[in-house]
Amino acid sequence: MPISELQISRIRNLQAPSFSPASRINIISGQNGSGKTSILEAIHFLSTTRSFRSNELRHLVTQGESSALVFSRVESSTHPLPLGVERTLEGDVRVRFDGRSLDSAELASLLPVQVLYSGTFELLDGSPSVRRQFVDWGGFHADPAFITLWRGFKRALKQRNSLLKYGKIDRFQMQVWDREFVSYGEQLTRHRQAYIARLLPEFKAILAVLLGDVDVDLKFYPGWDSKRDLTAVLADQFVRESAQGFTLSGPQRADLRFRCDGVNAADRLSRGQKKLVVSALRLAQGQVFRQKADRPCIYLIDDLPSELDEPHARLFCQFLEQSQDQCFITCVDPDTLTEFWSPDTDLALFHLDAGRLLSR
Ligand SMILES: Nc1ncnc2c1ncn2[C@@H]1O[C@H](COP(=O)(O)OP(=O)(O)OP(=O)(O)O)[C@@H](O)[C@H]1O
Ligand SMILES: [Mg+2]
């Protein structure tokens, strides 16, 4: 559901911008430090109650203020509906949509966002948890059952780890949590595998256009030797787990592996190539989402031109244009990206000057 109105209050240096985004392409330009990434952070906050730049809310909230608030209207099949998200430094979170409160899963499903920013490379060279989040974003949006499996698995893992950590292992209790761990863990893994199987051809097709001659292979690793039964793996590793105090193998160790020319892709690709690979992954993820949910997502793309030469930036914009998603794209120079769109695209240009937003 595209956002048709945004009012941002008490986020970083932003001077309470209030604006009506275009339903398709929004380009926000401005000098360094003008607040471009902060606008994208505010939209991410609206859809997840969190920043993508910092885990700590106090960094997002304007210095000297005690809460951040983003109010919006999102399009529905009939008319725009109000959505507001507020978080205080004391820890209160308020999410109101069309007169009722939403929990975090309902909010995430209402406004699915894809982010590309400087930390995006972590998808290739960061910790496995970043890649698990990527896979689980897809799983979550592909099937309503996914969140129940994910929560059930997390609970079993937490209980197992706590028994292992404190050393007083009640065998009966352990068997109960082992059964939950295996049952939820195997189902969760099947969903993750099915999602990657769905994503892979889309990713390859987009990558072939964006990166032409470079072939990147993507494989899902479930977190244990998948030829073996998870129950048998738990039994085998129990003595080592008791000594180390936590669960060793299992879906909590799942990962994606990217290879290029037979080596780890992160060690082979240039920065621009990495950006294109990660962009292809995010574009593919949006495409799979649209096919399933029959509605667009919101793309937040920070500094699109950085690392990319003009032909690649143009190709990337063409994918965004074809996608039907609502895009918020930032860049320093107001003139760089304006030429890349067909004349009938719903396009809005904004310029930021020291936290103040001006339409162009
Ligand atoms: N909590 C805060 N309160 C007030 N101002 C802040 C806060 N956090 C950051 N700032 C300031 O907000 C400004 C906006 O930062 P932002 O990263 O959004 O700029 P940008 O336009 O994306 O810059 P760049 O082109 O360098 O990426 C910076 O000048 C920064 O110093
Ligand atoms: Mg920035």
UniProtKB/TrEMBL annotation:
Localized where? Cytoplasm
Describe the location of the RecF/RecN/SMC N-terminal domain by residue ranges.
3-339
Against Pfam families, the record matches this protein to: SMC_N (PF02463)
Q: Where does ATP bind?
A: G30, Q31, N32, G33, S34, G35, K36, T37
Q: Which GO terms describe its biological process?
A: DNA replication; DNA synthesis involved in DNA repair; double-strand break repair; SOS response
**Gene Ontology MF term list:** ATP binding; single-stranded DNA binding
List where the protein spans the membrane: none
- The domain of life for this entry's organism is Bacteria
Task: Give the keywords, sorted.
Answer: ATP-binding, Cytoplasm, DNA damage, DNA repair, DNA replication, DNA-binding, Nucleotide-binding, SOS response
**Entry GO terms, CC:** cytoplasm
Give the protein's function. The RecF protein is involved in DNA metabolism; it is required for DNA replication and normal SOS inducibility. RecF binds preferentially to single-stranded, linear DNA. It also seems to bind ATP.
Fetch the NCBIfam families from UniProt.
recf (TIGR00611)
HAMAP family attached to this UniProt entry = RecF
The entry sums up its family as follows:
Belongs to the RecF family.
- Its recorded name reads DNA replication and repair protein RecF
Q: Which gene encodes it?
A: recF
